[in-house]
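quick one, 596 residues, struct below
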Amino acid sequence: MIERKKQQMTRDKVSRLVNWGHWFAFFNGILAMLIGARYIGSVGYPETIIGWAYLSISTIGHFTFLAFIGYLIFIFPITLLLPYSKILRGFAAFIASLGLYALLYDTIIYDDYGIHLSPFAFDLAWQDLNALLHSTSYIVTPIVIVIVELTAANYLWKRIDKIQKKQWGNKVVLFVGICFVSSHLFHIWADATNMTEVTRFDDAYPVSYPATARSFMENHGIDSSMQSTESRNTKSRKLSYPISPMQCTADSQPNVMVISIDSLRADMVDSVTMPFLSQYRIQNQRFMNHYSGGTDFETSMFTLMYGLQGNYSDRKEFDSTSPILTNTLSQQGYQLAMFAPENNQYAANSAMFSGINIHISEGDNGSADADINTINAVNAWQPKQTQPWFALVNLTAPKDYDTPVGFLGVQTIKPHMPLKPAQKVLFNQYRQSLNFIDQQLASLLNNVSDDTIVLITGTYGQVFTSNTSDARSDLSPGNVKVPLIIHWPDSHGNKVNYRTSHYGIAPTLLSHVLGCTNPSTDYSSGRSLLEPNNETWVYIGDSRRFAIYQKAEITVLDSFGKYRIYDLDYKKRLDKKMSAPELIQVMREGRRLYNQ
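---
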């Protein structure tokens, strides 16, 4: 009989502790919501009732769910093993405080870097700790959290019986459950209808995986493969581009021609392979240490036209935001034209080229024939212009190792780099294609007046492979280091040895041609190419995979935070930690225009 009473008392005590634990978890869910409000400030507040409605139910459902999961994992087992209220209250307050500390630290990291806590993010943030914890509040707040947790644990324990008599538990569970489920259903609808006011909060909260229309359809046996990438990639934030209104007044209006050649390596412009361009380079301003913005047309051309790092190119806002460069050219009365081959469908469907008259060249026998038609189109277009013009010319034959039928170019030579037999064949065919392009450049530039500003560069470099996927993922110097030559009217040739990149081209044209007095930081990640660059890094790539070219090493990262470090020749992988200061600057620059 006595033994039964003891067992009953133990069960009652455990039951009371479990009930207390549930209310303690709910209380911590409320605290987590208060701290989590900092994420909304980082992402930007909703502007519609629908946005506020979704954010409200999502916040309630997500943070109370996280608090309950934390209770089940860390506190509930201890309740069964050590059913002593004093021990459990102290332990629960300690665990809850740690959880809220982690959440608070995550809000700081997310606000500064745009990513949530992970081993990579923690390693990065730890090295920047002094800059992050710049206020005494980050010392006082943890102490306050401990006091609040201990007070709440004792308060709930003393009043748990009264709370249970009011029978609020089932109502709270029902309310939280409805918020949790309805937030996911809400998101499925928003994802299917491309409602960015809802989907832009997808990454705002840690450990948040809202259901999507795609996952819902797949779980119910419906093929979602036809759902467009655009409708699934709808994260949106407020963009300040430019940060301040542009102030531009040009003294003159010279014509401007930008020639971008796909797959043009910097080390292949020589007197044998490209004799015309080699001589033209000597006669004009040549940048000997220039880097593209990426390894594909979209990313690299984005950096050239917008003057921004390639990670901005993945953002939804730029689907409808045209470059400051072309906007300013239009405002100053320039005629804008782009000449590109028919296989460049991206050009016709991008805000990057909004307002530009696009001339598509066909090539029945490949990209080389298309390039010939492109050059002919430019030569025919120029004399007809009666106002200042800006022409963007894209040539693509080297990308495909293509030459016209019957073309006789340069002799085969031994590569200046170690290559496999198949790569040697591609190397020499690549030289033939460059020699063909060199002749086309001669045909084009001999018809351009000397008072026209001419800029010649590679859209990106070239690695000797026929696998386009491998080429796009290769961030080695051969694939990102490209020539840059600028012809300024009435100027002499000079060599620039400091490091430059594609996102310095737009600031150069805006400040030195269009008379814009804004600091380049108002609209660009770069600075004028004519100003010595003291920055210790160059960002190359998009947000999924990118490289940071530093003074003594190359750090390659992917979207999961995995990184590898190579020497400057990209031949040896270095066994060392990444340089945090440069990476911190990179990440801040990649979000700077959203933080104004």
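DSSP finds 20 helices and 15 strands in the chain.
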